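This is your field. Have a critical look at both lines of this record:
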Amino acid sequence: MINNQQHPLADLNARVREDLSYLNFPPANWSMPVTTEEGHPVSDVVIIGGGMCGLVAWHALARAGIVNMRIVDRAAKGFEGPWLTYARMETLRSPKTLLGPALGVASLSFRAWYTALYGEAEWDELFRIPRPMWMEYLKWYREIMTIPVENDTDVTRILPRPDGLLELTIGNGTEPPIFTRKLVLATGRDGLGEPTIPNFVKGMKRLESWAHSADDIDFERLKGKRIIVIGVGASAVDNAAEALEQGAGEVRLLARRKEMPTINKLMGIGSYGVTAGFAQISPEWRWRLMDYAAKQQTPAPHNSTLRVSQHPNSYFHFDCGICSLKEEGGDVVITTINGRIFRTDFVILGTGFSIDPMSRNELAPFQDRIACWEDRYTPPPGDGNAELGRFPWLNDDFSFTEKEVGTAPWLRDIHCFNYAASVSVGKVSGDIPAISEGALWLARGVAASLFIRDIDYHWEELLAYEKPELDGTEWTDADAPAPVQKTA
C-alpha cells in the first residue's frame, strides 16, 4: 500500500501530502446542493475519462473547491487511456522534462516520481520516458491524489433534461443513471471521433485481412507473415516496429507522399506564448496554423523510425497512394494510384483518427446541434480542410456551442476537454506539454459558470452570514457616556 513506510516512494508521498496541505488542498466545497425533482443526488461535475486528461481535470476542479464530483472510465483499473492498449511506441515523443499533469506541484511531476525510485544518475541517463512507465506514473498520480475513478463504467448516452440537468445512461441502462450539472469529456485522442477507416477496405474482414492501428491486433498470429502498413506517421511506424519485433516475415510501409516528412513544424513556435495566446487570436490565424501543420504532417520520431529501419526485412515505399484492395487466393492485393501492385497477408491502417461529433453514439440525442468550425468559419480559397471543419467550435472554457442559437442551451454544460478542442483553444487538452494549463482554464470556466448560475443562492448565503469578526472588546467608543461610578 502507498502508506507503507517501507515503500520506495514513502518520502515522496509524504512530500506530496505536505505540498498539497501548504496549498490548502482540499479546499471546502462552495457550490449549491442540488437534487433532481425525484430526489436523486446530482453531481456538480462528472468527468468521463480516467486517463491523464481526466486525472488532471479532477485535480484542477478539486483545487477550485468543486467537491461534488464523479469521474468514470469504461476501462478496467490500470488500463485507462492508450498506454497499455493500442499505443505501441517504445517511448513518449515528449521530452522527459515536460511537467504534464503536475499542475504546478513539483513533487507531483514525473521527474520527482522517477528520481524517487531510481535516483538522479538514472534520470540523467534517461533518454525519453518509456511508454509503460508513463502509465505507472499515472497510476501513482491517481493513488497519491486519491482520485476516485469509477472503472468499468461506460457512459452510453447523454440526455438533456427539462430541469436543466444532464442524465447519463450507464451501459445498457440497467444500472442507475448519473445526474450532473456539468459534464467534462476527458476522452482522449478519439474522444469526439473514431478511427479513420478508408473506403478501400470496405467489404473486407476486419482483424482477418486488416486492422486499424488502434485495434487489438494479435501480432503473434502474424509471425512469419507479409505485412503492409498504410502510412508513415507515428502510429504506422510504431505498429510496423511491433510486427517486426514479433517475427513478421516482412513489413512494407506505403506512403502516398513522395518523400518522408522530416520536420515537426509546430515545434518551430512551441512556447508558452502559443499556449496562452492561441485561443485569443482570430479564427483566421487559428485555422491557418492548424491547417498548415496538418498538411505538412508530423513525422514519426527519430528513434521510432530507426526501430523499423534496423530490420533488414522492412521496406519504405513512397508515392504509393492506395487505389484499391481486394482479397484474392488468400492474399490481400493492393493496387496503388501509380499502378504498383503489392500482395500481402495482412494490412494495418496507420490512418489515425477523425474528429466528428456525428460519430459519437453517446451524443446522438443532440449531436447534429453542435456547432463545428465549418458552421462558423469559411477558409480562403486553397486553405480548405474538410477534416478540420468537423472539429467543434468551442467557447474558451471548452464548452460546446449551438449550431443554431437557442435550440440546445444545455451544450454550454458539456466541456470538450480532449484532442477535439485543439482547433478552438490549442493543444491544451490532450498532449502532455500544456495539459496542466488547459486543466486550470477548464476549472476556472466551470467554477465561474456554476457561481453565475447560482448567484441567487450565493446572495442568500451572503445575507444569512452572521459570524462575528469582532466581539465588542476590541475598541472603546470615545463619544460614549462615561460609565457611572458606583459609591460604597
Notes: The longest strand covers residues 178-185. The mean pLDDT is 94. The longest helix spans residues 435-453. The radius of gyration is 27 Å.
